[in-house]
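Archive maintenance. Older records in this collection stored only the sequence; we are now back-filling the structure field for every entry so that each record is complete. The fields below show one back-filled record exactly as it appears after the update. Entries are processed alphabetically, and FAD-binding protein is next in the queue.

ARCHIVE ENTRY
Title: FAD-binding protein
Organism field: Actinoplanes utahensis
Length field: 412
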Amino acid sequence: MRERLTNWAGNVVFGTDRVHRPESLAELREVVAGADRLRVLGSGHSFNRLADTDGALISLAGLPRTVEIAADRGAVRVDGGIRYGELAGVLAAEGLALHNMASLPHISVAGAVATATHGSGVRHGNLATAVSGLEILRADGSIAVLDRAHPDFAGAVAGLGALGVVVALTLDVVPAFELRQYVYENLPGNALDDHLDEILSAGYSVSLFTRWTGEDIDQVWLKRAEPLAGDLFGARPADGPRHPVPGMPAENCTEQGGVSGPWHARLPHFRMEFTPSSGEELQSEWHVPRAAGRAALAAVAGLRERVAAVLQVCEIRTIAADDLWLSPNHDRDSLALHFTWIADTEAVLPVVADLEAVLGPLGARPHWGKIFTAEPSGLRAAYPRFADFAALVARFDPKGVFRNPWLDGLLG
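Back-filled structure field:
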């Protein structure tokens, strides 16, 4: 099938018109066997050329859906094309849950895992930390099966699609739970200075939203099981539903106002039944050690006018440490600063470079699927196990079938 594809935001036109959409594992093997260069296309929510290729693209969306719950109900095995919203509905019906979800439930599980995408919570690891098993179709047609006891596992989970096609994943699950979602407005800047850790720890998941137009935080989205009443460190409860971006319709957001509801209808910011079209936005995100959180916020505040001029909204959240080699949260609890920019690459890139200049000395690591300008050498230096990852890629894919120019530059 020949078509010209872009990513979700439309800022990347993929460098191929060859797109394969296999409907079975046998068809997938056939495509892989005949490929010189191949990249797997997830849900298109990468904002750089990580998923691009000078060969062919392959989508796993047409594979049969697989949701196999383990006998002990502590894990679920899923196919490589499933999306979080699809999986969440099945798990909820079985009285089970994932420990974390991203803002959008529409993204693919394998794609989010491959880039160590995250939800929020001081006690919760990113989405990739739920993975207990991987099944990877290699270029030679073999399937590598890895679990947490395998020496390659921690390098393969957040693998950037460089090892092969993830045809199945096994994820940890927990008993289903309910949460309430509260939105507070106008958190005073001095409250953030004095109580940052307390605010970020006030719920199962906490997100702060700001446009960097002043010292106050515009909104605090707090998700927790226990009810809350009154102000939050000087922030007032919103008097109705809100969207993170001021002026946008709130009906697409998950229910607020402290109404208790199932985990999968509270952890994401947006409803599954709302399917986002091509977004008029660009995105960047940097993870810094939580210990450097206040310094990072001060550094961004120093660029307030530059940032605000091209910003729609900035989300601030936390993620717990993990041991995955290419996770931005490798070996450290993190504070993440996520920037949703206007859809103007030429105007945004200089501001991205300015932010990298002030956040880099604090140990910032960019989200692999967002916009950044850091040199590959700097990225390699930011990850203690990067050399091990490069060696793992060389072993798994010696002919470079699953690489692309972006990865060639990163791996060196």
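Update note: The chain has two domains: 72-176, 178-266+277-376. The radius of gyration is 21 Å.
Entry marked complete.
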